[in-house]
Amino acid sequence: MADSDEREEELTTLSAIYPELVPSSEDFYGATLEIPVSPSQPLLVRFVPSKAAGDISLNKRGKTSIKAAAYIERDVELSHLPPLTLHMSLPEGYPQSKPPQVQLEAQEDWLPSDKLKELEKQAEALWEDFGRCQTLFSYIDYLQQAAESGFDLAFSTDGCLVLPMAVEKALVTYDAETKGALFDAGTYECGICIEPKKGTSCYRLSRCGHVFCKSCLQEFYNSAIKEGDVANVKCLSPDCGKKGTTANGKILRQTTTSRAIHPRELLAMGLEDKMVRRFVEMKRKKKLEADKQTVYCPRTWCQGAAKSPKYPPIPADLATYPDDESDDESTGKDSAPPQPSKQPADAPPIDPEDRIAVCEKCNFAFCRVCYRGWHGQFARCYPRDPNELSAEEKASYDYILSNTSPCPTCSSPTQKTYGCNHMICFNCRTHYCYLCGSWLDGRDPYQHFNQPGRECYQRLFELEEGENGQAPGDGRGFAGARRWEQMAIEVAREADAREAAEAAQAAEDEQAARALEAEERAEADGPENELAEAVAQVQINDNPIPEAAQQRPNAHARRRNPFPAHPRAGGAAAAVRYHERQAGNARGGRRPAVNNDERRQAELQRFLDMAERDEEEGWNSDELDEDEDFRIR
């Protein structure tokens, strides 16, 4: 009777301490209690895929080996784990002669079975240590303390809790839901409006932990996305991401690292799906436009960007959008230096990116060099616009054009370093001539070089030392397509030289015309106008004749035009015009410099003509009084 009273008394006491204690319906002295597991420090859990039978195979030595895919694992830190269920029963004779009977069960089977047995044995050990008295409360307290320390799983051989990947989703979901429930039950101060609000009206950013009310976040982020300011879709705390190094209380350096908010969080804040999708599309577009390696579709009606593993397409479900570490932006003079490449030192050099590109909109496959439909990896093509090439790319294509011969079958460029001109393509195994590009019969490839009349006759070992060694014999050089390419290069060079010579000739002709014009102007003005002659001489000195014109014989003879556009008029009519111009200039205009002999002859002829008509009285000789040589005495 005393035992029954003690068992009932202990269960009643436990019910008062733990209201969540559930009495057993089958055992009057039994009960069930859930022990929450929330370690003080997040517990590192490593999820490892289960080793399927197909992953195990025999190697060359006959030993079993596991494929590399079986070793793919993922580490996750969990702050909340599914609780332990404690089933306890007080047998007859407890506590004097028998210990309590306990059984532990972990939801989702996350706790190893050997750990569960170890915890169960601790109930009997405590009963013995406490002198065989009531120990259920002490045992429950022991379990709670063990759960707070993570059951010391961090100190295991692996340094973490290792579980199969099959339970990852359940444990991660439970951790997130538990965090959300605890957050909703609290009260927080918004970092924007500075007002206390319940957790159900707030949102905590997953990366930095800053808390803001959802209404403030929605208003700010919706406005930023509408205006296209995607760079400001990040934490709104001014101190977020700032890191400082202090020495003697002084800040030596300070850097800021910020990252755009993940679309999954924007949806959790309450933003509409179309607004979040606009944000993702604009962010991806900015990255494509900023990347110089982005190639766009050559179709004028498409102009879509080519598919690239760096910028995967946006998934239909934005919650599954991958995390992008490239969104991190560091500012400040003392930012952390870039991490060195993890590529091993003995790794082979990375091949240049393939030329094939596929439009992500219309799925058109094209060559990123010539922008035409895809023609194969080894086809010889040239850029559509050479101005779009860098200096290195242009030099590479010029070198290929000048120092390689294309295969007649697949156009794979080949350069010979030594040996004969019988070539075998490394790609398609075609036999061909290095000089003219002709197909050769693989059974007797050398008959091509032994047939008189052919351009390659007796030229099997021409250029034996390679492209940069021995010069082509007898001045013939290459034949076939290679010759036409080199002829085209030479024609282009000659055209450039001719264009430069024509430009120099045009400048020379212009200079000579200017000099001739100056001489004609000075000759028309007469020797009395010394100022005009000096100005013409200054113009000639300021614009000297080009050196190329000076070196050409009779270069200066071209300065005088033997057939002027307006030859000087002569006769009586011209003399009258000169006289009238002279009279007009004397009345107020500028008097031109006219040859004195011509003027006197014109005036005399005019006087004689007027005398024949008995009009000599109308002749005014006052203008000639100043001329002593012409005065009538």
Automatic annotation (TrEMBL):
It comes from Saxophila tyrrhenica. Residues 9-150 form the RWD domain. Residues 186-460, 190-235 form the RING-type domain. This is RBR-type E3 ubiquitin transferase. Residues 312-350, 495-529, 544-633 are annotated as: Disordered. It catalyses: [E2 ubiquitin-conjugating enzyme]-S-ubiquitinyl-L-cysteine + [acceptor protein]-L-lysine = [E2 ubiquitin-conjugating enzyme]-L-cysteine + [acceptor protein]-N(6)-ubiquitinyl-L-lysine. Pathway: Protein modification; protein ubiquitination. One of its GO terms (biological process) is protein ubiquitination.
